[in-house]
Design the sequence.
């Protein structure tokens, strides 16, 4: 009973995290008049404040300081840079009506993870997974060759988040500690961006109370789904959690076409059809592989 309840709680947390990421464009559209770098800076600083409160309540400060040293700290410097690039590209893409290409990036990302696992971690993949990656790669190639979309956005998001996940996988620190240290490392550049904007008279914060509240909300919007995801990962099978990741780009795709009026060209349809086919094959093979009993040699 307890195990079932734990798994159910994990499922709800995982769905909540991916839905939050999926509807993020709705929030970012409200900040369309704020330069992307300033939005990023506010995401970092307000997230840091929220995470500091969580760390204090959980009494995790000492453990995080102990973990964030030497090689782990160097890895977190790299992951902080990667997540900052990912956030900045995503914010810019939403503000400039490229949500379609952004959603494509996050559809590609799981398959990028497979490629990184094979190339950098020496992991083996089944034939079905290899076929899935190949089909998705053809989809990316079709869009790149046709020039029918901002493929650079898709690749930048997929690769930055893929390498971010890889670095965090090998860094010896948990999700809360890693995210806290990453935002702490990014705090100084974020403050520099906001001070520079203030000095030039282009700062968005402090002009309108409604906009100020939206920028302050960036902390919860950024940190909450990450914390939900971390909690879900501890409570449910990682295979199941991996399948949930398609919720976010699906919601982003729907918003791009139905709400934001972004043009869906024939080449987009072909590309997404290939990507979706690859993702479906990968998901099917993952589920089948997780149900295959392991036999002793």
Sequence:
């Amino acid at each position: 009973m307890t195990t079932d309840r734990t798994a159910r709680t994990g499922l709800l947390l995982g769905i909540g995290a991916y839905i939050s990421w999926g509807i993020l464009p709705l929030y970012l559209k409200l900040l369309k008049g704020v330069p992307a770098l300033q939005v990023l800076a506010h995401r970092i600083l307000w997230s840091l404040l929220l995470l500091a409160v969580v760390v204090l309540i959980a009494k995790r400060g000492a453990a995080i300081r102990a973990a964030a040293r030497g090689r782990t700290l160097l890895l977190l410097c790299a992951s902080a840079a990667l997540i900052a690039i990912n956030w900045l590209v995503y914010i810019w893409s939403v503000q400039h009506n490229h949500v379609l290409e952004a959603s494509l990036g996050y559809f590609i990302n799981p398959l990028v993870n497979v490629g990184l696992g094979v190339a950098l971690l020496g992991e083996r993949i089944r034939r079905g997974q290899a076929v899935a990656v190949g089909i998705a790669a053809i989809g990316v190639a079709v869009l790149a060759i046709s020039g029918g979309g901002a493929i650079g956005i898709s690749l930048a998001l997929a690769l930055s988040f893929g390498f971010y996940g890889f670095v965090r996988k090998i860094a010896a620190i948990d999700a809360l500690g890693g995210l806290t240290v990453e935002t702490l490392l990014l705090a100084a550049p974020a403050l520099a961006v906001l001070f520079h904007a203030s000095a030039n008279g282009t700062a968005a914060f402090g002009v309108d109370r409604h906009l100020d509240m939206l920028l302050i909300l960036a902390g919860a919007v950024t940190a909450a789904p990450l914390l939900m995801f971390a909690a879900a990962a501890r409570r449910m099978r990682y295979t199941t959690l991996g399948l949930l990741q398609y919720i976010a780009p699906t919601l982003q795709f729907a918003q791009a076409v139905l709400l934001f009026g972004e043009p869906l060209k024939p080449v987009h349809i072909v590309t997404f059809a290939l990507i979706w086919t690859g993702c479906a094959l990968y998901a099917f093979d993952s589920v089948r592989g997780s149900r295959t009993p392991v036999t002793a040699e």
About this structure: The mean pLDDT is 89.
